[in-house]
Design a protein that fits this description.
With about 450 residues, the protein is an alpha+beta fold. It is built from 11 helices and 23 strands. The chain is globular, with a radius of gyration of 23 Å.
């Protein structure tokens, strides 16, 4: 078997450099084929799966049902945070413990920096000093803010990546999530240098750059939380401009993001409200313009056709752990897709596995055939979520006894001569659930832990 054709191009270049006495630090993996095992090119379109889906235009939930679904996630399951209901003042001791816990946990692990150097205790000590925990009052007064730019949300207040393995650059252990322009937050604490603030959004909590927050009052935050009239992004990304001619670029929004609208011209641009920021960091109203073709006024109708179309718009979009590089991981992919119809899914895969109608939970005794039978009999394409340990996928149908899913994934394993080999996908892809069969981790189907459908 020839080796070079199976390697990514940059891996081959690194090999050549090593022959010249240079040393490549990045880990080298085999690339996955463009058409993955047991898939065919037609399967990479929404229309293919739409044609195989019964009742594809049936409404899965109407607007009142979606509202009740979201309230259940927030009030009963407590998977979505209502930032307006946080205690104010907030107990300082509780907050201090919340900030110290990840610091202590990470300091006990073996972690590496980007340059391959192991992280030492001084790194964590300096961060603890920066976090200014000793200055925290017994009762902390919370502030409202709105994100003015797309921003990474970090577990600790630093841009320095921490890696679980040397040069594992696609997985930063400090990357918690990312926040869109217009996301309301509740700010709770600030670093001693004034660069970072700690706060809650509706899905997650973490450290964000203070320069990307405009501080505001509660009524302004509510205007962005529940606008009377709004647009939702229906393309993978929608650019924001500061002029009606759409020549002055400002930022972008990912699928499912929404902003209040003030005026629309369907042929050109939608005028949206933007959170501006004055020199003191306080909110000031601004306007922006988003291409009309990239957005929809209000939410889309929740049907299997809608979800399949939205999911396949993201096909081949790059994978991004915790929103790294402005992209999406497995759970963020689902958040983006279902946000277009107004469903507010929680941020991580374990929490997403708890929502909707749970039709099955599998254990080690459940056979692959039993799982396949249940999926083909009861799962709804475009509405069924397929959770694994540390991963989650969207079910799209079963063909010739093989269940298929679309998901944002980094890699899969294949067994070669009794050893596992990693093949990097690094994108949103369509795969059958037998992917990984024969490897030490097992196939996706073997690892499947349950099925839940996003219905009332």
């Amino acid at each position: 078997m020839k080796l070079f054709p199976m390697l990514r191009l940059h891996c081959f270049l690194f090999f050549l450099l090593s022959l010249c006495g240079c040393h490549a630090h990045e880990q080298l993996f085999y690339a996955a084929p463009s058409v993955l095992p047991h898939t065919e090119p037609p399967m990479k379109t929404a229309g293919f799966w739409i044609s195989h889906t019964p009742n594809v235009d049936g409404v899965l939930m109407d607007e009142p049902q979606i509202g009740e679904f979201n309230r259940h996630l927030q009030k009963d399951l407590r998977l979505i945070q209502d930032i307006t209901q946080l205690s104010n003042p907030y107990p300082g001791l509780n907050l201090k413990m919340s900030l110290e816990t990840p610091l202590l946990s990470l300091s006990k692990r073996s972690l590496w920096k980007n340059d391959g150097q192991k992280v030492d205790s001084e790194f964590f000590h300096s961060l603890r000093v920066l976090m200014n925990l000793e200055a925290m009052a017994s009762e902390v007064t919370l502030k409202y803010g709105i994100m003015t730019h797309y921003t990474n949300q970090r577990i600790l207040p630093t841009d320095e990546p921490l890696l679980a393995q040397p040069f594992d650059v696609d997985f930063d252990e400090l990357q918690n999530s990312s926040l869109e322009v217009g996301t309301p937050v509740r700010i709770m604490h600030e670093t001693s240098d004034g660069v970072w603030v700690y706060g809650f959004s509706n899905r997650s909590a973490g450290w964000i750059k203070k320069s990307a927050v405009s501080f505001c009052d509660e009524s302004t935050a509510r205007q962005f939380l529940s606008p009377a009239s709004f647009m939702v992004v229906t393309e993978p990304k929608a650019d924001i401009f500061l002029d009606p001619a759409m020549t002055q670029y400002y930022d972008n929004l990912r699928m499912g993001a929404r902003l209040p609208i003030t005026m629309e011209n369907p042929r050109t641009a939608v005028q949206v409200l933007l959170p501006g920021r004055d020199q003191s960091g306080m909110f000031e109203l601004a306007v922006g313009y988003v291409p009309a073709d990239d957005v929809h006024k209000g939410f889309l109708l929740y049907t299997p056709r809608t979800i399949l179309r939205q999911a396949f718009k993201l096909l081949n979009e790059p994978y991004g752990w915790g929103g790294m590089y402005g992209e999406q991981d497995c759970s963020a992919f689902l958040v983006q897709v279902f946000s277009t119809v107004g469903l507010d899914l929680p941020r991580n895969s374990a929490e997403q596995a708890r929502v909707g109608k749970i039709i099955a939970k599998f254990n080690q005794e459940t056979t692959a055939q039993q799982k396949t039978n249940l999926l083909s009999r009861e799962a709804i394409a475009g509405a069924a979520l397929l959770p694994l340990k540390g991963h989650i996928m969207l079910y799209i149908g079963t063909l010739e006894g093989r269940p298929y899913a679309i998901h944002a994934t980094w890699a899969y394993r294949e067994s070669v001569s009794g050893k596992d080999r990693i093949r990097v996908i690094n994108r949103v892809a369509v795969t059958d659930l037998m992917l990984g069969e024969g490897s030490k981790k097992g196939s996706l189907l073997e690892r499947l832990t349950g099925v839940n459908i996003l219905v009332p």
